[in-house]
Amino acid sequence: MSLVYPYLYGTNIEGAGLGSVATLTNGSRVVTGLGGAWESALEWGDDISAGGAFAIIQEVVSDTELLLATEWAGPSQVNGPYVVRRGIANADPRNYGRKVAEYLATLRGLPENMRGLYPYPAWDAATTYPKDAVVSHAAALWLALRANTGVEPSEAAAADWAEWLEATPGPQGAPGVDGLDGWSPELAVIADGARRVFQVVDWEGGEGNKPPAGLYVGAGGLVADIAQAIDVRGAPGQDGTGTGDVVGPDGGVAAGEMAVFGSGTGKLIAAPAGGATARNNLYVVAGVGSNATFRLRDEAGTNRGTLYWDRNLGQVWLILHDATGAIQNSLRLTPAGATVGNNAIWHAGNLIFGTGPNQAVQLDASGRLPAVDGSRLTNLPGSGALTKSFVSAPQTWANNGSVNVNHGLGEEPKLVQVFLECVTAQLGWSAGDRFMLASYGNSVPGEGHFGIIARAGATTVTVRIATSGIRIINNSDGSASGVITPGNWRLIVKAFA
Prior knowledge:
The two termini are 101 Å apart. The protein folds into 5 domains: 8-91, Elongation Factor Tu (Ef-tu), domain 3, CATH 2.40.30; 112-166, Carbohydrate-binding module superfamily 5/12 (Seminal Fluid Protein  PDC-109 (Domain B)), CATH 2.10.10.20; 184-228, no CATH class; 291-369, no CATH class; 389-496, Sandwich (Immunoglobulin-like). It has 3 helices and 35 strands. Helices cover 5% and strands 36% of the residues.
């Protein structure tokens, strides 16, 4: 393929590189491409341009690689459009004349029996050759006397072809210099699902630059995609025709059941209808990173008992299940003790009696409990435990006024608490600060009466504020008190029954 007048070649040039692309990197002299015939079409000194920039080609390395005379100053692109323009020196007709002269001089300088070795395309039956075309065929060069297609060059085709030069073997040349030792691949078998493929993990025994590792062996050579690697495992072979001497049950078994021997010969496998016997030890082995579980099931397959070892907690559980599989009771063994349900029944160091933590309480000879701290006794009948509670929304208030809230407890509260919440900073307190305010009342000469009192009923809690309001301690230093502004504070009522 050659350039199309006016000596252009590239992505959008019909008949000269149409559809080919180039990859250029800013700051690099190397250009790579796809779909072109650069080695036969381009020459050093040609100009390549892309993205509004251009550079001079110093060397045409191959059909897919060029070396620029200077680093690419234009924008980087990957497999993008480009155009090559013939360099001025190469486009000069005098240059073409010089090349023809050099070719003829080279041909004349060859021995007579070697001129036929000068490279010409081999004759092809499907190609249409114009007049004066030169091809190589049958160890000779042939000149087309007229345009023809499918006519094999020979003496019998004298109307179409004339033998130009006969290529006869010349004398044997001197031996060349030994090349570098080749590299041998080190292969590893890699699993790809059900397939097994070869991967080149390293190279050995060679000289010079070592080829890249990590590629796979494909049908036509080394490939980077494991999906294109050939499967070296091959298809499964046919089943054998032989028969074994171990006989199993005809049916009545389910997946996951344990198999037992049905006789003393070891050749009969039976279903475990009457149970299975482990003569020595029976092991339940946990998988890597998992726990170990032994389950007891009824005839319906419902789990009724579980023996379970917890790897992370270092505990063993014995769990009882009901007919639905729900847990009814459990025994938990830990390095520190044992627990039935949520109740400790044993502690390290044997059972310890007393009234302290982790100790069992022992009745005396009269069946009475020993003296214990009453605060440790909770949820006893008639203990007066508080089970219901109410919290009001923040309430506005005024001096010499009242705040009434419905508590909804259904009975008179046993405990009432009043809290003050700051909404605007005052006396060293910040918005959001909250504290409990006890019922109190006092008089300050020359200032008035201050305090609150809370009264609870069956449905309502009433908070009464003194005529002069409420005094509190300054939060900044605690050394003085002051009267608060009602608009800066809210009252919150809590009630318990």
